[in-house]
Design a protein that fits this description.
The chain is α+β, with helices and mostly antiparallel strands and 667 residues long. It has 24 helices and 22 strands. A five-stranded mixed beta sheet has the order 2-11-10-3-9. Strands 14-13-12-15-16 form a five-stranded antiparallel beta sheet, with no helix packed on it. It has a four-stranded antiparallel beta sheet with strand order 5-4-7-8. Bound molecules: 2-(butylsulfanyl)adenosine.
């Protein structure tokens, strides 16, 4: 048997390799489950042997909840910017200028993407990452090593052995489009301000104090500049290929260009092809390849003479404003929306664009019927960037923000210190009520199937529900009377409502629609307060003492529970049997009877809820997985297990265990 240290080392090496395969090469060789199992095993070994702890272990890539300010340090070599141009002719001039400055020499140019993120400088010693520093003001930057360690595509330990003992590598930290979309969808849902583009999201994320949240957001990094005393090659291109072998992500778009015609072709190609890339780019960078030639060309005060950035044009269109509509969200915030003559922009038709708030309408000075500039550059959300005032019809009136709620007619109030107008009629304004119901039944909240926007509106219009607590009094015979509602759907909804009573407390908090209280905040509140009575009794001071709860959130929570109507809803939800406290974990039940076992749960149960079974599996050291594979140890099956799952389990010889057998197993 290997010693623990040997096992730990072997697991760390293997996991580093898998991380590289997955995050850099995009070619994983093991399943996510296998990876997770190895990581769990390593975590267990490290727990047993704290003497072998290592901050660079792959287990630390999930981040920590510790918060601390960033230390600032001076850069060893200044971080400069690049000269910019939007014109192909100027890029050509740049190449000619370089040639003229190096008479009689061949000048090879390297073309590469200009990634639109936030720049980072990494320092390696003996093949290990020792420090990550942001650009800062170019002279000094913030040390963000803890956050950078969570970026899975960044090697903590290099591969091979031909790297210099000490070197610096620079690159761009980016948030890939997919992760950006997901993050913004979440933020939109939680009514948090959206990130305008992946660049802001990447730099904001990198500066977060909570590295676990950084890890969750899915940053990535591309590298484009190697610096140091003993670089392996005398040219940029080969050095970057070496860096790629050491484990860094270096874009495949990097290429050597021999003539001005090559450069122009490269620009024409990527002007279009960049739209298919998984990350945002805002242009191309052209660099003189030879390091000796770079040295000869030197620097101006701000940028190197051996490189230039060609920037892509943001796509912009001019279109007519038909009217501005004012929409009421579930928390009462009024959002102005420009309804436009449909126009094609970056491959999609744009006909609506949020104007966000009154201040933006004022700043842009939008008038009725104006011709508006719409842009979709690095941002996927179309943005109104200006007005063609020359095209304005004489006598056109400025667009005025509504003074009364477009849905219920109540006078609007402006939230102190904020740009938003709100309809304060929480309990009588239809879109707010139906919005809250829709939110309450959502998959990440109470997970009640069968109620979408349309049915929420129908239920409200039919007078069947006026608040979320009314849901728990709904009967199938009432539902069946609604249009397009069959008995089966009615039953499914009522079943879903009943099952929602076992949804854990943190999701109940999220489901209430307390302004500014999103999914993450709800979890923090539930963990810190443990039960609803404690939460309802908290003061602003007590709430802000909880990690990540700022004064705005705290005040919103206190205001919410100060409303008698809201307290009454909580009382009724509690009477209906919803979870109003975190479950007590009976530590005496903890065991390792299911250690290393992967379990799939399927069907409906009688003794415990699905969530309770999930918790029981974890309490006994097992792992919950969602789909059956040959790695699954058994399926915990209740009533009505789906036929496809049954078939798959039979085919793969995965045992099926019922509730009683399972409870005996962990007894
Ligand atoms: S080279 C001394 N290459 O653009 C030259 N920069 O405007 C160092 N950037 O601060 C920069 N992609 O954050 C270089 N392929 C690339 C780049 C790139 C993005 C960023 C970088 C830099 C800024 C310069």
């Amino acid at each position: 048997m290997d010693t623990a240290k040997e096992q730990i080392d072997a697991l760390r090496d293997a996991l580093n390799e898998h991380n590289h395969n997955y995050y850099v090469l995009n070619a994983p060789t093991v399943s996510d489950q296998e990876f997770d199992m190895m990581l769990k095993r390593l975590e267990a070994l490290e727990r047993e042997h704290p003497e072998y702890d290592d901050p660079y272990s792959p287990t630390h890539r999930v981040g920590s909840d510790l918060t601390k300010g960033f230390e600032q340090i001076p850069h060893q070599r200044r971080m400069l910017s690049l000269g910019n141009t939007y014109s192909v002719a100027e890029v050509d001039d740049f190449v000619s200028r370089c040639r003229e400055s190096l008479p009689g020499e061949d000048v090879e140019i390297v073309g590469e993407m200009k990634f639109d993120g936030t720049s980072i400088s990494l320092h390696y010693e003996d093949g290990r990452l020792v420090r990550a520093v942001t650009r800062g003001d170019g002279e000094k930057g913030d040390v963000v090593t803890d956050n950078v360690i969570t970026i899975r595509s960044i090697p903590l330990q290099l591969k091979g052995s031909d790297y210099p003992k000490q070197f610096e590598i620079r690159g761009e930290i980016v948030l890939p489009w997919k992760a950006f979309d997901r993050l913004n969808a979440e933020r939109e849902y939680n009514e948090e301000p959206l990130f305008a583009n992946p660049r802001n999201a990447a730099s904001g994320t990198l500066k977060m104090q909570n590295s676990a949240e950084v890890a969750r957001r899915g940053l990535d990094a591309y590298f484009y500049y190697l610096l140091g005393e003993n670089l392996p090659f005398d040219n940029h291109y080969d050095n970057m290929l070496a860096a790629r072998r050491w484990g860094f992500k270096v874009s495949d778009a990097m290429t050597r260009l021999e003539s001005i015609a090559d450069v122009d072709r490269y620009i024409n190609h990527w002007d279009i092809a960049r739209k298919e890339l998984p990350v945002a780019t805002d242009g191309l960078v052209f660099k003189v390849n030879s390091l000796r030639q770079q040295l000869n060309l030197g620097f101006t005060a701000k940028s190197p003479r051996w490189a230039i950035a060609y920037k892509f044009q943001a796509e912009r269109a001019l279109t007519k404003l038909h009217f501005v509509s004012f929409e009421v969200g579930r928390t009462g915030v009024i959002t102005p929306v420009a309804n436009l003559e449909p126009v094609l922009l970056s491959g999609t038709i744009v006909k609506r664009a949020s104007l966000h708030n009154e201040d933006i309408i004022r700043q842009l000075d939008i008038h009725q019927g104006d011709m508006l500039y719409v842009e979709k550059g690095g941002e996927i959300i179309p943005k109104i960037t200006g007005v063609d005032t020359a095209a304005r019809e004489s006598g056109a009136e400025p667009v005025r923000f509504v003074t009364h709620c477009p849905a219920c007619g109540h006078k609007l109030v402006r939230v102190e210190g904020e740009a938003a107008w709100m309809c304060p009629n929480k309990i009588g304004c239809a879109p707010q009520i139906t919005g809250r119901i829709e939110h309450f039944v959502g998959r990440r909240m109470m997970n009640i199937d069968g109620i979408g926007e349309e049915i929420a509106v129908q239920l409200f219009n039919a007078g069947l529900i006026r608040d979320i607590a009314d849901l728990y009094e709904l009967r199938t015979d009432q539902l069946e009377k609604l249009e397009h509602m069959g008995p089966r759907t009615a039953e499914r909804i009522v079943d879903g409502i009943r099952e929602s009573k076992s949804v854990p407390f943190d999701r109940v908090v999220f489901a209430l629609s307390i302004p500014y209280v999103g999914e993450t905040v709800s979890k923090k509140l539930a963990r810190a307060c443990h039960d609803i009575d404690t939460l309802m009794g908290m003061t602003v001071e007590q709430l802000t003492a909880i990690e990540d709860i700022g004064p705005r959130i705290a005040e919103s929570i206190v205001a919410y529970f100060a409303e008698p109507e809201n307290r009454e809803i909580v009382r009724r939800l509690r009477d209906a049997g919803l979870q109003m406290a975190m479950p007590e974990v009976d530590e005496s039940l903890r065991s390792d009877r299911l250690a290393g076992k992967s379990v799939v749960i399927s069907g409906t149960f009688t003794h415990h809820s699905r969530d309770e079974y999930k918790a029981l599996i974890e309490l006994n050291g097992g792992k919950n997985v969602s789909s059956i594979s040959k790695k699954t140890d058994f399926v915990l099956a209740g009533e009505n297990m789906g036929p496809a799952k049954l078939e798959k389990a039979a085919k793969l010889n995965v045992p099926i265990i019922n509730e009683d057998e399972f409870l005996n197993m962990i007894q």
